[in-house]
């Protein structure tokens, strides 16, 4: 990372965010200017980033990239490639300090804060976060900003996941506007059903024993993200390695 080396960095004059490449800084500036240069040739919807346009185009084509091992599908080939690390065990992202490896880049970025001790504090309530992006999302609570807008009804949301959940309402509507009974996703092993496909996927780990969420400090694994979050508090409070009893 250019922050820790002699590499040249490019800094945003508006928010002081630093980038290794000038081209990345140029794309980042669209966030401040509101410019959306990438336009869908089908519906004319515009996007700040090219990769968002590419992902959007799959809505029109219906193209999906399917994992040959678990049949999970993705709209982007790059997302499928990252997903495959779960099956292969590959961890291509290496910490320069302790040589610990990670399957996902964002996990490496989070891990690096263990070495630096850097946190980002909210100027309103003093709550601190290990990632600046999490602090930025947190600030919406204080500002009331809702940047994620539904393309169908223009309803706005603070969090992207809330928008995605909301979009299911439109998917279930008939042309007359009447909403169907909620779709249920059923586990083929125990017949337990869920309103969201994601919840079924998490539940299925009970049968497979999969624990994809791993503690960066002690390598303890968890089925659910929230269980890992609760566990990490042990390290924050004690600042020591924990052992499973």
From TrEMBL:
Keywords assigned: DNA-binding, Metal-binding, Nucleus, Repeat, Transcription, Transcription regulation, Zinc, Zinc-finger
Single GO molecular function: sequence-specific double-stranded DNA binding
Main location: nucleus
Pfam families per record: zf-C2H2, zf-C2H2_6
Gene3D superfamilies: Classic Zinc Finger
GO CC terms in record: nucleus
Ranges for domain C2H2-type: 10-37, 38-65, 65-92, 93-120, 120-147, 148-175, 185-212, 213-240
Subcellular location: Nucleus
SUPFAM superfamilies, A to Z: beta-beta-alpha zinc fingers
Sequence similarity: Belongs to the krueppel C2H2-type zinc-finger protein family.
Record-given protein name: Zinc finger protein 271
């Amino acid at each position: 990372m250019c922050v820790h080396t002699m590499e040249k960095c490019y800094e945003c004059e508006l928010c002081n965010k630093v980038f290794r490449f000038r081209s990345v800084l140029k794309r980042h500036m669209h966030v401040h200017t509101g410019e959306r240069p990438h336009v869908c040739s089908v519906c004319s919807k515009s996007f700040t980033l090219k990769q968002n346009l590419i992902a959007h185009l799959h809505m029109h084509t219906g193209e999906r990239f399917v994992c040959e091992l678990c049949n999970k599908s993705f709209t982007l080939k790059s997302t499928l490639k990252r997903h495959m690390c779960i099956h292969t065990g590959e961890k291509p992202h290496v910490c320069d300090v302790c040589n610990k490896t990670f399957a996902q880049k964002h996990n490496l970025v989070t891990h690096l804060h263990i070495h630096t001790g850097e946190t980002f504090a909210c100027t309103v309530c003093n709550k601190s976060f290990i990632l600046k992006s999490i602090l930025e999302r947190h600030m919406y609570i204080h500002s009331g900003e809702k940047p994620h807008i539904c393309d169908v009804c223009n309803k706005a949301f603070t969090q992207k996941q809330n928008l995605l959940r909301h979009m299911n309402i439109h998917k279930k509507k008939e042309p007359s506007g009447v909403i169907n009974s909620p779709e249920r996703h059923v586990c083929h092993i125990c017949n337990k059903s869920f309103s969201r496909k994601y919840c079924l996927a998490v539940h299925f780990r009970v049968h497979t024993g999969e624990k994809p969420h791993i503690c960066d400090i002690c390598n303890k694994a968890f089925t659910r993200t929230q269980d890992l979050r609760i566990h990490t508090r042990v390290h924050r409070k004690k600042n020591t390695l924990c052992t499973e009893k």
